[in-house]
Predict the 3D structure of the following.
Amino acid sequence: MNNQDKTKEELIKELQTLKQAHDALKVSFEENISERRLMEAALSESESKYRLLAQNSSDVIWTLDNYYRFTYISPSIYQLRGLTSEEAMRESIQDTMPPHSLEVVNKIIVESKELEQKKMYPPVHIEIEQYHKDGHLIWVDITLRVMLDDKGEKIGYVAASRNITERKMAEKALQESEENFRTLVDQAKVVISIVGDVQCSKYLYVNEEWSRVQGYSKEEAQNLRPLDLIAPDLRPQILDYAAKRMNGGSVPNNYELKIITKSGEIKYLDFSPTIITFQNQKAILTTSIDLTERKKAEETLRESEAKLRESNAQKDKFFSIIAHDLINPFNSIMGFSEVLLNRINEKDYNGIDEYARMIGQSSKQAMDLLKNLLEWSRAQTGRLQFKPENFDLVDLIGQYMMLFDLIACQKSITIHKVLPPEIMVFADQQMIGTVLRNLISNAIKFTPKGGDIIISAEKRADEILVSVSDNGVGIAPERLEKLFHIDESDTTPGTNNENGTGLGLILCKEFVKNHGGKLWVESENGKGSTFYFALSSSTEPLK
């Protein structure tokens, strides 16, 4: 149908429809224009507010394009770096900072690009140094974010910079102070440690002196339990003190502590703990002084005093022997010799054999004493050399039994031997002979007429055991401890009133000790005694 075929009414209706469409388009266009103008006004207002905010902010606000070129820098750059915005805009990023700061920035740029490829835009926070206009360096805190358009595409960066130089200087001063304090603590000749809890289960800090005394490194200390380094017998007390101290109880301010070092050595500390706050927790600070050397010095002094007392006792004993015990037998010899001479001159021969026997006994006593004195004095002055050799101990015992046969017969004493055919031993023959001589002589001295003495020897797995037993007078319990001490030893007369000094047993013990052996006695008062000595069973030179 063409327009000519349309009726008038249809044309009018069509024109009305077109007019309505035109009016609607006009309204829509006007609304769009109005909305765009509002948006532009709002954007302009927003930009004005943002620029006003940026211009009046104490922080420096700046923007970069995608090529890291400055597109805006707020006027507060002057307070930060002494530059106007125009001066700062003419710089590149590289111009604003020293190489070490630029290295940090370049690293961050590389990391940011990797994230941007994944459409990830986290804010970046860095602290670097920048140049001031006058050339000195300032510390700045920078927060940088990516700017995106309405389509989500990156169009640059916006950042804020803040001067943190004073904070950094304060941090540096604090760090230097802490380092100086730590150096001072580490160099102090005081053992310092910080223990973390009442159970003493963890070290929070130890200094160099602690490492020197304990033998552990600082790194090793982190895996140690402090309580395990304390001597076991003191641990319950230390835990009790720690618990009371943490709860404000009353405990000693300092006390002596015994510790176990890495090498197993025992050391002594003058220990002073106190409660502090460390790493936001309650802890025990301990300061200690190593007393080990002082303890050793005190022990050395005690040993020196003991040796001095022993030396004085030896001197007193020596003079006592010279003044009394050695003179007595010679007085007897001189007296009996004079009586014997007078009887012979008077041709009175009755009883002279008894006088001769007494002279012989006194001579024997004096000879034994002189031998012991000579050997003892040589041992004390270091002139008696230790000369071990291989020899048959059974043969040596036999030789000394023969020497004492006559004396034993005079008292009707029987000497029994319980010996194997041979026992080879590596020892100083002269010293062992002196030991046998004294033990056999004493057994005869304290055994009554008609008594028995048993000499035995046996070879065991790792030692040779020799014993001399008698059924004589025995030794009272209170005298057993004094037998081998020169400053306390005393003697009792033999069964025939034979005299002695006690020096022989002391000499025996010293000679057996020279061989690394031991000498001891078992005795019951009135029932006899058994003296034992043990030597190594080795027939090779002692190492």
Summary: The chain is about 45% helix and 20% strand. Residues 3-52 form one domain. The radius of gyration is 54 Å.
